[in-house]
Amino acid sequence: MPYKRVLAGSVVVGLSLSLTPDAMAAAPRWRAVLTSTEKQPDRLTSVVSVSRSNAWAFGAVQNGNRRALVARHWNGRKWSKVALPKPVDAPRQITTAGASARDNVWAFGGGGDEDTTSFALRWNGRKWTVSKRWSPDEGLLSDALVLGKNNVWVFGYNNVGAGVGTWNFNGRTWKRMPSPGFALGEADAVSARDIWAVGAGPTGCAMAPCSLVARWNGRAWKQIKIPGLPNTEEHYAYLRDVRARSAKDVWVVGDVTRRQGTQWTSSPLALHYNGKKWRRVNPPTAGGVRALLTVTADGSGGVWAVPAFRDTETTRHLLRYTKGRWHKVALPKKAGLQVHQVAAPWAVGESSGNGVILKYGR
């Protein structure tokens, strides 16, 4: 993931933009390139694009009340299954993954409300090994950053269960890193000394916990204030993901929830930082979009966002921000398709109990 920074005192400017369809016949499109044929239900939850000829997809296959880890590797010609070590004797899944080179690929797991055993797996170009197992009482793992062989970050904050906290690997040992007054869940980096994260904490909250943005400056984590975000028990923002491509190009996405009488409603939230101030760049709610779950770079100066919808778990379409506008981008017609993550040009998810890999292009 990338890194980020926010300046205190910046002003959030409201800006809601209309969608335009990606509908030219010769335009790039999403297509399914692999659908799993596992005998048991499975899902792909994370994807890493190392290069055009090197990518990894991870997930799990369900076998009764237990899961087995799944990995697939792209070698430039085809996707193949690769065996993973058994990190823990418990229900498990891959939560997130990252890479800095073809011989430094990581997959992290645990996760799920019934599983509090988290782990880190590492690929050295020849084989997968277990780098770390957290103890069951240390909690869940939600995200990671792989900045190099000697610099790996892991994040986990309380959600469906207790989080593992914030950790760093220096090439030899894992060390827990303090984040005073808050916990971090998702992160991205501009550099090793400029890392951005979203999380939760009581610091400055009218309600507790509340969503927040924090930044690593090479020495410590510090909370970043974003003026204008709602923060009451009946009107609040939930920050779900962050993408930092440079100190002047940072995205934070999530949703805003409001109580109106006895009804609660949610709408998507997208914030962009240009190095001086934050502004809202929210997509319209047409089509029932209630939140933006993830945000990733599209490789062409824009970003992809995976939306959540009010009345279905199916991912009806993806959203792409490019050339100053949000675009609704169609997905293949597959029953019950759910997209879990995008790493351009790849996306992974599931369809009717089968893991799916999608690719964007002509």
Automatic annotation (TrEMBL):
Q: Does the keyword Signal apply?
A: yes
Key words, A-Z: Signal
Signal sequence annotation: 1-25
Record's protein name = Uncharacterized protein
Which species does the entry assign this protein to? Actinomadura rudentiformis
Organism lineage string: Bacteria, Bacillati, Actinomycetota, Actinomycetes, Streptosporangiales
